[in-house]
Design goal:
The chain has helices at 2-19, 69-85, 96-103, 112-129, 145-157, 162-176, 185-194, 199-209, 212-226; strands at 58-64, 87-93, 240-244, 252-253. It is of the alpha+beta class. A four-stranded mixed β-sheet has the order 2-1-3-4.
Length: 255
């Protein structure tokens, strides 16, 4: 089961590293002389910004929650192409439930047409981007607050970002590929161990995740994501990707 969740991602990375392809879906909200080669694709829409830049140091902030399958798609595509697009990717763990509530939006589960569309949409997108999502026989009903506090604690401990990338991916694989729990301490311990942490390090992060500073940090980043509400209709869900340019701003969102 784990092989099925890992192999497609590795395969896609090797393809990109070998052929230097850079093709995705773009949704610019403004033009910029520093941004080139925006390509619109007629395939089903995952909101991913195509960036091909010739200057260095451009920062892209990705606000995400592991409860969002579209966040996983954006996450993998941005990591896949970041060296080609020459971007500095900053991960910003946020709480999807807080963004949906704060924006006045409704979860897909409350809108039958949306949940039906998502099933077919995610099947096509997972095949196109080779991100290994497997349809579950029952809808996911658990809240992501506990795992996102865990991810936020990892982010506070991991200043380089490599561990945060691995932990986030392990959580997405459990939720959207193997359909395992991600809310219980035993599940988070398994996630941490699979991501390369020691047992002591995982226990330390679990304790940190329950602390008030981590709770406040997650609230703060979620509030940042909500500040995008009203900018061309974005900020209603996750992921949100915010490229930072001198004369360019683009807010991308899908959940």
């Amino acid at each position: 089961m784990i092989d099925r969740c890992v192999r497609p991602i590795i395969k896609k990375r090797l393809k990109i590293d070998t052929n230097k392809e850079s093709r995705s879906i773009a949704l610019p909200l403004a033009s910029s002389p520093g941004l080139t080669d925006l390509i619109e694709d007629s395939r089903p829409t995952v909101t991913v910004l195509l960036l091909k830049m010739f200057s260095s140091g451009k920062v892209v902030k990705l606000y995400y929650d592991v409860a969002s399958p579209y966040s996983w798609l954006a996450f993998e595509v941005l990591f896949r192409y970041r060296s080609i697009w020459n971007i500095d990717l900053k991960l910003k763990p946020a709480y999807l439930g807080g963004v949906i509530h704060g924006s006045g939006n409704m979860p897909p589960g409350f809108i039958p047409n949306k949940i039906q569309y998502m099933a077919s949409d995610l099947k096509l997108l997972s095949e196109y981007f080779e991100v290994p999502m497997v349809k579950s026989s029952k809808p996911y009903e658990s809240d992501s607050l506990v795992p996102m506090r865990f991810v936020t604690a990892v982010a506070e401990q991991d200043k380089e970002g490599d561990l945060l990338e691995r932990v986030s991916r392990e959580l997405w694989k459990r939720m959207w590929c193997t359909h395992q729990d991600i809310t219980q301490p035993a599940s988070l311990i398994e996630v941490g161990l699979n991501a390369g942490l020691s047992t002591n390090e995982v226990e330390e992060i679990l304790t940190l995740a329950k602390s008030q500073p981590i709770k406040d940090k997650l609230k703060s980043v979620t509030k940042e994501a909500l500040e995008f509400k009203g900018r061309s209709g974005w900020g209603l869900g996750l992921p949100i990707s915010q490229p930072q340019y001198d004369h360019y701003s683009s807010i991308l969102c899908r959940f």
